[in-house]
């Protein structure tokens, strides 16, 4: 089969890989085959995605020796015990080092499967088949894999690049509205950190995206992946500019940890987190009130929360943010904005301004 | 302080690192400092080693912000739950990505700490301070890290090179005889797979090594590390010749799994496993009976078992060996010998010969 699609190459020397974007790609066996090492494939998915897409991936891989492991669905299962179930399945079915893993699902499945691939027998290949917008625009690009620890998100993990990403835009038809919005949070992020023209485009095309217009979605996915791929190619191991991809994430991770993983979606927490980052930037005089209001309006327009939960005390915020991976020598660093499309990592902010951002005086929007 | 020592450089491009070998090095703060990133250091050790050496390492690192995690001692604790205790400690004490781990102990501590360093916040540096002969000659060179799964040894892990290895030969004074012998098994292995002159030297110096003559031990450690470093430099990710380092290990891992980890020491199982590999090589006509007898005599001379436990049925052997990482497309491959100093990885053996090796007709030596 040859399904029409866009292809984007992520340029990482001998770890380079293609991202295929288009409708119906999940059934295209020709996209998988060149990226499968050996004859055995373990499909890792979850209870929500399996009934929708597992049989179709199995059909596309006909003739190979397949295994499957179906995990519970939700960020709260992105833990050591659930991760270990992938190894249980691989070992029970005697998968050797010459197998390939396929991550079929959203970001949680991608992160856990990729991390299992990184560690199984010290490393086997894997292919990402992301079925949520969040995973298509973000989690499947860049090779970050990992699981959560009760004390912090993504604290245990590895850099492990997939052999290919197969992003079937038609899988987004089955995505709940709330998850579509969560994915759009990461899309907006690329505009905010490095692509002001894309931010303008998103502002103009919000209606089409929310209506799931296929062309608008494909454009948003490709431009997001292209932005992320450029950042990752320049800084694979996050020594520098890659940290900018964390805009809104330090605040967002704290929200997720405070609420318990799985209450707010990751993208929802990032949506509110980006507005908080903009709010702090405005307090520092780096962006003006109009810019803050515009950012807030675009994010709210995608159906995302723009205020943190009102019940987290400032001390708890600071405690949760202290475990962020950008902390150096005990000093908190944040991704802040000098304008739309212009972000930086900095520790140059006062605690007073930070605390004011954590406890806003504006009335909080209703929680999702 | 400047303690006299030998230095061996492991050549791995930007992951190159030095191995320092000599008496009293554990106290030499000058050896640690250049390899510590940031100001925070987590020392990972176990209940046996901590009372002997923890305070000395802490003294050598005076002025840095130190943490410690003391794990139970034994191969049976090289598991997911114990590994997670390292993350518990790192997160409870708010260690950031700019910390350094120190693995103070034997191979189990080195493997678990190195794997924790590989995965903590997707990778932090670590330094190996091996306190057993096995760890000094083997586990601390080459970057293999990992933990066991109930279905197989070292099935979950990563390649993660240390920043430095500090091998204090005086720590071997406190090593039980049985553990010294277990380390000598890996020393003999280097002679068998690629260094016939070293095998001759070991045969001639067995008495001095068993008497813990410092010069003989230093020589054996340096030559073992040099052999391993050469193999690893040529094949960091085990695509080819590095697999030769597994001589005796497929049999040995099966023995350990069958007996339950921690009953036979790893080196003891490898000792018997190497004789089994030699036995199968003799059955295939690749080495003669005299060579087999010589190998058996040298290994027995170091106080190691030369026969497997008598109570493992052949089917169980085959089942346990089927999860070996050298299995490709379901076919078992073994490291066998064409002579002393001449090893190969091969699937060219018949099941009959293999089964004859698994159930030897010679009277087994007493178990350790």
From TrEMBL, chains A, B:
It catalyses: 7-phospho-2-dehydro-3-deoxy-D-arabino-heptonate = 3-dehydroquinate + phosphate. Its cofactor is Co(2+); Zn(2+); NAD(+). InterPro entries: Dehydroquinate_synthase (IPR050071), DHQ_synth_AroB (IPR016037), DHQ_synth_fam (IPR030963), DHQS/DOIS_N (IPR030960), DHQS_C (IPR056179). Residues 69-181 form the 3-dehydroquinate synthase N-terminal domain. It comes from the Bacteria. Residues 183-327 form the 3-dehydroquinate synthase C-terminal domain. Gene3D superfamilies: 3.40.50.1970, Dehydroquinate synthase-like - alpha domain (1.20.1090.10). It is found in: Cytoplasm. Pathway: Metabolic intermediate biosynthesis; chorismate biosynthesis; chorismate from D-erythrose 4-phosphate and phosphoenolpyruvate: step 2/7. Binds 1 divalent metal cation per subunit. Can use either Co(2+) or Zn(2+). It is an enzyme of class 4 (lyase). It holds the Pfam family DHQ_synthase. NAD(+) binds at residues 73-78, 107-111, 131-132, 144, 153, 171-174. Its EC number is 4.2.3.4. One of its GO terms (biological process) is amino acid biosynthetic process. Zn(2+) binds at residues 186, 249, 266. The keyword Chaperone does not apply. One of its GO terms (molecular function) is 3-dehydroquinate synthase activity. Catalyzes the conversion of 3-deoxy-D-arabino-heptulosonate 7-phosphate (DAHP) to dehydroquinate (DHQ). HAMAP family: DHQ_synthase. Belongs to the sugar phosphate cyclases superfamily. Dehydroquinate synthase family. This is 3-dehydroquinate synthase.
């Amino acid at each position: 089969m040859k399904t029409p699609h866009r292809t984007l190459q992520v340029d990482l020397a001998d770890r380079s890989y293609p991202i295929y974007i288009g409708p119906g790609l999940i059934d295209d066996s020709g996209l998988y085959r060149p990226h499968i090492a050996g004859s055995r494939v373990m499909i890792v998915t979850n209870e929500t995605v399996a009934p929708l897409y597992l049989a179709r991936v199995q059909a596309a891989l006909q003739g190979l020796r397949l295994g499957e492991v179906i995990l519970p669905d939700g960020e709260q299962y992105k833990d050591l015990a659930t991760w270990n179930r992938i190894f249980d399945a691989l070992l029970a079915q005697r998968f050797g080092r010459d197998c390939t893993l396929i991550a079929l699902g959203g970001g949680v499945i991608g992160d856990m499967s990729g991390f299992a691939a990184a560690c199984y027998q010290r490393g086997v290949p894997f292919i990402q088949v992301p079925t949520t917008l969040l995973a298509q625009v973000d989690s499947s690009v860049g090779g970050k894999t990992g699981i959560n620890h009760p004390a912090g998100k993504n604290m245990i993990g590895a850099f492990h690049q997939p052999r290919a990403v197969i992003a079937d835009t038609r899988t987004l038809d089955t995505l709940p509205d709330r998850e579509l919005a969560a994915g759009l949070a990461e899309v907006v992020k690329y505009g905010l950190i490095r692509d002001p023209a894309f931010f303008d485009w998103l502002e103009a095309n919000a209606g089409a995206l929310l209506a799931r217009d296929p062309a608008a979605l494909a454009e948003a996915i490709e431009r997001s992946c292209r932005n992320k791929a450029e950042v990752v190619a320049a800084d694979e191991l996050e020594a520098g500019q890659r940290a900018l991809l964390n805009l809104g994430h330090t605040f967002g991770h704290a929200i997720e940890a405070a609420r318990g993983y799985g209450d707010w979606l990751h993208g929802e927490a990032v949506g509110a987190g980006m507005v908080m980052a903009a709010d702090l930037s405005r307090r520092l005089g780096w962006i003006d009130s109009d810019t803050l209001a515009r950012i807030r309006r675009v994010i709210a327009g995608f159906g995302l929360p723009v205020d943190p939960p009102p019940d987290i005390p400032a001390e708890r915020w600071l405690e949760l943010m202290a475990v962020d991976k950008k902390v150096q020598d005990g000093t908190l660093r944040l991704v802040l904005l000098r304008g739309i499309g212009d972000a930086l990592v900095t520790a140059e902010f006062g605690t007073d301004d930070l605390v004011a951002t954590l406890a806003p005086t504006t009335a909080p929007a209703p929680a999702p």
